């Protein structure tokens, strides 16, 4: 390369300096300059190509020693060669494993050249860097393919040869970590997503026992239980959760799915292991739930105060007050009540998510409970006709306030989503050793697609979202309450033909844990 002293610049002419900077910034190679006269040889300049290569901005780079690009891999042989060359003031070219700001591995071809001052002392070093990851991967792939061909010739049968291409094409296109294991749990194949997610290389993975990967990082008790105890008795194993602290990449929460591979109706003793990293997803959910919980608690205190003041204002208003003022205060009180109900629902959801929902089981007479609830609705919703059919002969164990909340929510929804149909039916019955309650309306109905997600948190159907306000957590709360009672909540509906929401409750307390 051209020595910087040969460049057509002299002195501190701003025009020449600007020209030199423009020339360096136009380079497709990453270029850095370090100051050898300062402690730890810090970076004092980097061009735009280096910022693009490393993912770091100039502000994040200046002042640091370039060793930070190696992350935790400070023991690479190339680093020793660099150290010796710097001490001797000699140029050197090496290949290093570096990491971008995102944590992504890349191979760096680094050329280092010393710059000497007037007294023949080395004042600076120039480093020119190029991403040679593709070339290195190609070399590794050539080595891997050569070894694989030899291994196939010696060890693999004709049947495995016929199916390898198909299996590889499947696992390489799926956006999850996928491994194919042999009966001894040795890795036959690993897709790119697995290698990238867990920061391992193909040559250190293929042919090795799963438990030996990463110096034993995958020797996980939960994983052994899945592969050695559960999988042999069940095919497949779905959504098996594993929480593990990896020494080099930190804690990972993983969702594992394991299948024995079946070809032509026979099990070929191959295991397909799908590994989904849900660490960030779960952490995001926890942060969101914590935020909702804290926010709801913080909002409830001032809201209670506002509600109290509003009630006091209504009591203190003089009899001859302007009717508009009385109407405005009354409307304000209703909106405060609505906001209070929303916050209460968020707190209830937060308790469910954190496992802090406590149920107080006692015998419940559902006939009496449902009858009283319907009487209350009839008084406040004269626009609809609410009828009660059937009865339940036995007391049902459960938390009375929680079950009442479920029934209230279902009836409220039935009224809300059937504005043009007056009839609402509530039916009580016994099915086997379960009590069953159904709430039927003749309103808008629910599409099959929406029915699949209607009990998910924050889900609201597209049609409903346009015409009716709400947060989409009421049915989620109802489904979780019924689930914790040992029952099931479901919906039957067709668009334009109304909907029937039904749930069951065990008639005996022991049944709730089945």
From TrEMBL:
Location of the PAC domain? 92-144
Please provide the record's keywords in A-Z order.
ATP-binding, Kinase, Membrane, Nucleotide-binding, Phosphoprotein, Transferase, Transmembrane, Transmembrane helix, Two-component regulatory system
What Gene Ontology molecular function terms does this protein carry? ATP binding; phosphorelay response regulator activity; phosphorelay sensor kinase activity; protein kinase activator activity
- Main localization, broad class: membrane
Query: Which reaction equation describes what this protein catalyses?
Result: ATP + protein L-histidine = ADP + protein N-phospho-L-histidine
Q: Report the InterPro entries cross-referenced here.
A: BphY/WalK/GraS-like (IPR050351), HATPase_C_sf (IPR036890), HATPase_dom (IPR003594), His_kinase_dom (IPR005467), HisK_dim/P_dom (IPR003661), HisK_dim/P_sf (IPR036097), PAC (IPR001610), PAS (IPR000014)
**Top-level EC class:** transferase
Q: Name one GO biological process term.
A: osmosensory signaling via phosphorelay pathway
| PAS domain: residues covered | 16-89
NCBIfam families given in the database record: sensory_box
What this protein is called in its record is: histidine kinase
Species of origin reads Pedobacter endophyticus
């Amino acid at each position: 390369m051209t020595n910087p002293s040969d460049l057509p610049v002299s002195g501190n002419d701003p025009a020449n300096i600007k020209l030199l900077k423009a020339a360096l910034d136009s380079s497709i190679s990453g270029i850095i300059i370090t100051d050898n006269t300062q402690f730890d040889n810090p970076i004092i300049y980097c061009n735009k190509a280096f910022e693009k290569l490393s993912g770091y901005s100039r502000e994040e780079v200046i002042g640091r020693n370039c060793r930070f690009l190696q992350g935790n891999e400070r023991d690479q042989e190339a680093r020793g060669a660099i150290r010796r060359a710097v001490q001797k003031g000699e140029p050197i070219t090496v290949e290093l494993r570096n990491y971008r700001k995102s944590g992504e591995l890349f191979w760096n071809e680094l050329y280092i050249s010393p710059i000497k001052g007037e007294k023949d002392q080395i004042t600076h070093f120039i480093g020119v860097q190029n991403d040679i990851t593709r070339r290195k991967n190609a070399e590794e792939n050539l080595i891997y393919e050569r070894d694989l061909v030899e291994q196939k010739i010696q060890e693999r049968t004709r049947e495995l040869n016929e199916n390898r291409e198909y299996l590889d094409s499947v696992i390489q296109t799926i956006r999850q970590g996928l491994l194919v294991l042999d009966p001894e749990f040795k890795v036959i194949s690993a897709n790119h997503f697995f290698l990238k997610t867990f920061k391992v290389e193909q040559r250190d993975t293929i042919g090795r026992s799963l438990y030996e990967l990463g110096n034993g990082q995958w020797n996980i008790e939960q994983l052994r239980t899945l592969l050695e105890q559960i999988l042999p008795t069940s095919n497949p194993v779905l959504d098996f959760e594993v929480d593990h602290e990896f020494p080099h990449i930190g804690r990972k929460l993983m969702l594992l799915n394991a299948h024995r591979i079946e070809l032509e109706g026979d099990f070929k003793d191959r295991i397909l292991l799908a590994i989904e990293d849900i660490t960030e997803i779960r952490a995001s959910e926890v942060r969101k739930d914590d935020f909702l919980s804290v926010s709801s608690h913080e909002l409830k205190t001032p809201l209670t105060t506002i509600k109290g003041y509003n009630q006091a204002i209504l009591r203190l208003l003089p009899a001859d007050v302007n009717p508009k003022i009385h109407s405005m205060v009354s409307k304000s009180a209703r909106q405060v009540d609505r906001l209070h109900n929303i916050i209460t629902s968020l707190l209830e959801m937060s308790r469910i998510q954190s496992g802090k929902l406590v149920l107080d089981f006692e015998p419940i007479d559902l006939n009496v409970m449902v009858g009283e609830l319907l009487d209350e609705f009839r008084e406040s919703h004269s626009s609809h006709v609410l009828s009660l059919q059937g009865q339940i002969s036995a007391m049902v164990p459960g938390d009375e306030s929680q079950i009442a909340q479920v029934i209230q929510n279902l009836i409220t929804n039935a009224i809300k989503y059937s504005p043009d149909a007056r009839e609402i039916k509530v039916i009580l019955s016994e099915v086997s050793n379960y009590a069953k309650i159904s709430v039927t309306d003749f309103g808008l109905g629910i599409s099959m697609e929406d029915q699949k997600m209607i009990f998910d948190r924050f889900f609201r159907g597209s049609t409903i979202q346009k015409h009716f306000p709400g947060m989409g957590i009421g049915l989620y709360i109802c489904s979780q309450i019924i689930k914790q009672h040992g029952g099931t909540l479901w919906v039957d509906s067709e668009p334009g033909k109304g909907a029937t929401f039904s749930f069951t409750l065990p008639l005996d307390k022991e049944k709730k844990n089945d």
